[in-house]
Specification:
The protein has 7 helices and 4 strands. The protein has about 150 residues and is mainly alpha-helical. A hairpin with a 6-residue loop joins strand 2 and strand 3.
């Protein structure tokens, strides 16, 4: 109701909701952190270690959501996260995460903006952090991604 200009997109999603839901639950889930921001970390003075201390937005989801969220950090912090994650992943699984990430990326390109729109639409004033999702819904970008995922 908040974005009638995108009603065709929402009807498309709703008519294929079961397929979208099945895809969302297809990848293995892990503990995810949904508030990557520099104020939520304590970093050692030599920058060789960091620790999160704000855990109120921990959740369960697929790995790629962490890679999307961590992009808000400075480039050096982002790269450190990726390097360490990759090292631990290879140690555990014997191959890189990129082999399994393709589907997660496609799902995330649709699910993340939809989730942002839902959360943002519940607020009296539409928040700045969700403007990207609104723009994608209105300009057809999100519809194109949804069609590639769901058809």
């Amino acid at each position: 109701a908040r974005f009638p200009e995108a009603s065709e997109l929402f009807q498309f999603i709703l008519s294929r909701f079961d397929r979208l839901r099945n895809l969302i639950y297809k990848p293995s889930f892990t503990l995810t952190y949904n508030d990557f921001y520099w104020t939520n970390f304590a970093v050692r003075k030599d920058k060789q270690a960091a620790m999160m201390f704000d855990y109120n937005l921990l959740g369960k989801g697929y790995r790629f959501s962490d890679f999307r969220n961590v992009q808000s950090l400075a480039e050096t912090a982002y790269q450190a996260f990726l390097d360490e994650y990759e090292r631990l992943y290879v140690k555990k699984h014997g191959h890189t995460r990129h082999e399994e990430e393709h589907l997660e990326v496609k799902i995330d390109e649709v699910a993340a903006p939809l989730f942002s729109l839902i959360v943002a639409s519940r607020q009296e004033q539409f928040p700045q952090w969700a403007e990207y999702a609104k723009a994608e819904a209105l300009d057809g970008t999100l519809a194109d991604k949804a069609k590639r995922l769901l058809l």
